[in-house]
Structures are given as structure tokens and as C-alpha cells.
User: Fold these one by one.
Assistant:
Number 1:
Amino acid sequence: MTLELAVTDEGSGDAIVLLHAFPCNRHMWDAQIEALAAAGYRVIAPDLPGFGDSAVSAAAPDLAVVAQLVFDLIDDRALGQVAVAGLSMGGYVAMEMLRQQPGRINALGLVDTKATADPDEARQGRLQLADAVVAAGSSAALLDMMPKLLGETSRAERPPVVEAVTTFINEAHPEAVAWAQRAMAARPDSLADLARFAEPALVAYGVEDVLTPVAEQDSMAGALPDGVVAPIPGVGHLSALEAPAEVSAVLIDLLGRI
Ligand code: MLT
């Protein structure tokens, strides 16, 4: 039996799928779900395998498995084409969807993500992190990531955002963390897939993001034939949480270009 992802499905109109970051879940997008539904769109936001209310996949770790599960959600709802937006790991999944079924995607939002594959050292680090969380639990290893997940402004001035991210970290199951890290370690470069995507695209990022720096954003924007770049000042990697209204606005702008 194939895994069914837990999902928020709100609003009506043209559909957009929102794919969350590691180690969060679909509630990372709560503000955008509300804003996009109010703007006249149907918003479909799944918990990716192992996060939130979705079970861990029994398949070998691979983002292609995740992309297929998201297409299953779209097929179940008999939706032809959809817009897809993903933040960081969610962006990697969006690019995998583009590789699998490009004709199903009518707009692409890449938020604080990157199209390049991991260099060897980063890949080794992910595999070590996966082994460490399986042996000793998620929280300690992931709390070390906090300075990178949030921008310095948020860490200093937005305590509720720090609290929300701490909760995501504490709730992330070790098996999900390990599966996702191994799957991300195996992902290929996606720049050639972006270069073939002629529909409206968005490259949005927090200016204080140190995990997916501006050079990565420039290379995605350079590859996309119809890419609009939206730098968001005063926020870091988890921009959807750090600047919810700004991220909603750039997504609504993307949908308006379809
Ligand atoms: C994320 O926010 O999804 C992660 O930072 C992605 C990654 O580890 O590359």
C-alpha cells in the first residue's frame, strides 16, 4: 500500500502546492495558506514523508519518491496543472517534480533553495547526521542548525519565530530526519531542468540566508527562461516564517503571471 501524505487543502480556484522545508512540516506555510486562499487560490500543502502527520516512507531514501507522492495528491484531486512552490528541501522536491512531469506545472516558486547537487563534503555530512540522529535522537543535532535556519534579525528580534522553529525541531522524528538527509544527499543537479521550464518562475530568498546563498539564487535565476528574482531583506533561510506577508505577496505575484 502506498503512503498517503497528510495534507491541508484550502480555498478554491487555480491550485498551488506548497512544499515545506527540513525539518518543518506543512504548518510552516500557515500564513501563506490563509493569504493565498483569501486571494482566490486553492492551496494544497502536504506534510512530506515522516514530518508532521505523515508516516515515514518504507522506500529507499530518494526525493523522486516524495515527488511521486505529491503527484498522487494532485491526481487524487483530478487537478491537471498546478503551480508548485517549495522552500529549501521543498524546492528540491519541486525540481524533482519538474524532472518527472514538467507538463503538470504551470508556475514554479523556488524559495531559499538551490539547484546544485551537494559537493562530496556536504553529502558526507548529511550521511553522518542521518546516522547520528538514528543513534541519539534529532533535537541536539538539529538545534545546532538554528543559527543557519534563521537570519540574524529573526534570532535577535522575532522570538515567536525562534520558538516555532524549536518546536519543529523537537517534533521531527529521527527516522524522518535520517530519511530526508539521505534523500537530499542523493539529489542530482537541476539546473538543466530549470533551463527547460518556460513557464513563470520565482526565485525568492532571504537576504540573510547563509544556507542557500545569493550565488545559488543567481544561478537558478540565470537558468530559468522566465524567472523573477525577489530578495527579501531582514530575513534568513526560513523566509516564509520570518517574513510571512512578503512571501505570500511574491507567491501571489507569481500566480498572477500564469
Ligand atoms: C531545508 O531548509 O530544507 C534544509 O536546509 C535543506 C538542506 O539541508 O539542504
Number 2:
Amino acid sequence: MTANTSLQDLNTRFAIPGVAAIVAGEKGLPMIQITTPAAEAHIYLHGAHVAHYQRPHEPPILYMDKASWFEDGKPIRGGVPVIFPWFGPNPNDASLPAHGLVRQRQWSILSIAHSGHDAVAVELGFSSNEQTRQSFPHDFELRYKVTVGKTLSMALTVTNKSDKPLTYECALHTYFRVGDIQFTTVDGLQGVSYYSKVEGNKVFQTGDHPITFTAETDRVYLNTRDVCVIKDPILNRRILVEKEGSLNTVVWNPWIAKAKAMPDFTDDAWPIMLCIEAVNSHFNAQTIQPAESRTMTQIVH
Ligand code: TA6
């Protein structure tokens, strides 16, 4: 079966004329192109990766690096990486990819449908298989519902398909486009404790002021359900980042040295991106019983 045939087949089954089409994206990877009066979006089947989200008369909301890989077996740098079943390096095997197994694998389209006024809901699926069981010996099913409209809503549901409890970490590792990180602030995490990965994982308590950025910032905020507000005076906008079913929020900017050290990250791009991530990791890893499902959602306003 050729790539075009499979695109043809996917469009026959899921396309909505003038609203949703499956096309060849970067490096020919299949991509769902969503166009509505409220917003446009691109979702790659590779990693179920939301790569683009933009509303009329506004710069893109998500950051996508020009140097990003778009290749099987490699993560896309930007947009919304879907992280499961471990966050960061694998605790037992450093040779395994950071941030889990599913962001580098092809997901299936389950449905594409209108959702309310001016929105479109795309549902994608991924299930455990022989390959995933080699590095994560559990049976699971993932459902990822992305709703594109005036807001961008992303809901990741994990179902335990085995006969024993399933413990996992997960994250929606969202890269936002900002005008200049040096003038950007983040409100909403005042008073929340965090540990800083660039300060020896020491724990700090945020004061009653917004977060500002003057160096590499890589923080895991603990036990917080708070809404974050990215205040961007350069692009003259505020982005509200709401979440449900997540107890950690990660705030990350690589700054100068780390940006240079990443081959798939443009050296001088660190000022125009900021990650605000909905996460369940470490002490907030999730455990679900056989046949149980659990959902984590991030909503970008
Ligand atoms: O979420 C922040 C973080 O864990 C950072 O430590 C940094 O490694 C970032 O993710 C990027 O990870 P990646 O595997 O996408 O290069």
C-alpha cells in the first residue's frame, strides 16, 4: 500500500470537506489539517502530535522548532508532545527514549467530527503491543481527544488492559510561542512548591509574585491544579493554561547553553518559546486498577 493510498483511504473514512483533511505534512508524515472559523490546527499521526494551533489575526499559540525532526522513531520538537508511560529519562534503563514510548510512534485516527459551534474533535488511539511490552511490560490503551475551536482542549485517557494494577507517568508537554521569554511572566503558581532540575532538584517555595525568566528554567511544581496565565507583552496577549486530572505543572525554558546542546532545537530560538506542561510524575504517578480508565486534560484559552 502506498502512502498516498493510505492518505486516500484515511480521507475516505474521516475527512470533512473544507474542515478536516489528512495530508502529507513535514517529511511526508500524515497530518490532520483542521480549518474552522475559530482556529486552524495540524495534528500528526506520529505521536498524536498537535504541531500547530492558531486563531485568526493572532500569531501561532504553539511553538514549533524549524530544526525539528519529523521522522519515525524520533520526537517532534515543539507543539504538544504526548508523554507516556514515563516522564523524563526512564528510571530503569537509560538507553530507552526520554519521555516515554508513544510520542515517536504512529497513532490511529478513531474519529473526526464537528463538536459544538465552530469546533472539531479528533480522537486518536494507541494500544500496547509486543514492541512496547519489551520496555514497559503492561497492557494499556490510550485515547487522545483533541478539540480545536476558540480553545484547544487535549484529553489523554489511559485504560489498564491488564489483570494487574498499572502505574504510569504522563504529560502534555506543551511548547508555547512567546514574543521574548525575558519579558514574559507566568501567573498562577504563587505559593506553590517546586523542585528545580537546574538547582540539584532542591525544593523551593514560590513567593507571591509571577514567575520571571533570567536563566535556564526547569521546574516541577508540586500538587497544583492551578490555572497558569502566560503574560506576553511583546505579542500583546495572555494565554490561559487550564488543566484537569494533573497534579504537577512543569515550567521549562532551555535558555542559551541547553538550546545550543539540542540538535533539533534552533540555537537562537530559546527567547520565543516556553513550555507549560500538565504532568503526573514522581510522587504523583498514577495507578489504575484492571479495566480502570483515567483522563488528564489541558485546555488552552
Ligand atoms: O519537561 C522539561 C524537560 O523534562 C526538560 O528537562 C528537558 O529535557 C525537556 O523536557 C525536553 O525534553 P526532550 O526529551 O523533549 O528533549
